[in-house]
Task: structure prediction
Amino acid sequence: MSPVTHFLAGWVLANTATLNRRERIAVTLASVAPDIDGLGLIPELVTRKSTHPLLWFSEYHHSLHTLWFAVAVAVLAATVATRKWKTAALAFLAFHLHLLCDVVGSRGPEGYTWPIPYLRPFSDRWQWNWSGQWPLNSWENLAITLVLLGLTLAIVQKYGRSPVELFSTRADHVVVATIRSRLSRVKQPVREI
Result:
């Protein structure tokens, strides 16, 4: 699934529990952490026509989709949290939600289904894969993203925060005020004159 979908899934999950802003950030970042290795695409694109191309994306993407990295991310989330166990558990769950989304919806255009090397580097024996994996640009992935956007709007309306809180509280207040004003206009009945 797309990074936006993973991000929204983590942020929505973070808002299912009583967490402070820092804890919500930790859980949300845990939901996108497995794709840090996707940054290897940049040096790969830059060096692709050189005599020594760096195939960091092609060779290493999904290499962090592992149990050991999930544990590391959960421990890191706990270190920045007040509610350590709750935040660590939700970060671990957010990480695994990412893995589940990749197993069901990350097939490439050439038909390659991304396996998840869950026990690597300790073992190659157990890899998650599903032959029915949806293409990355499938209607199913779009539908999931739209549902997450709807849930995001509901959270904005109910709790007065948006995913923008991860970057700036001031910008978040502006976004929340704007969305709430737009949603209140939509809900008002039209008066006949």
Remarks:
- The chain is about 60% helix and 0% strand.
- The mean pLDDT is 89.
